[in-house]
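User: Second chain of the day. Same drill as before.
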Amino acid sequence: MKRLLQAPNLALATLWADLLRQGGFDVSVQRAYASSIAGEIPPDQALPEVWIADDDQVDAARALLHELRNPPFQRWVCRGCGELIEGAFTQCWRCGASMPP
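Assistant: Same format as last time:
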């Protein structure tokens, strides 16, 4: 069992763990409730962590996390209304049309 990363809060730790589980990795969140003792121990030691069960999958899990945390920047023009859409959006914010394939 190895630590993949330390999260700034429990919400992100559980989100990243859920995304990794959907990707087929056996992960768990450790130190989920250690923030309550942050004054008794150094604050950085009270942050939640995401751990992976299979040591051989560490690199693949980190690669997936990097891909999920850094989606490619896209730019497309909506077919429905002609609006320029930037970012990781797959639907037009103006008219609701889906991104063309």
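The helical segments are 10-22, 58-69.

User: Great, on to the next one.
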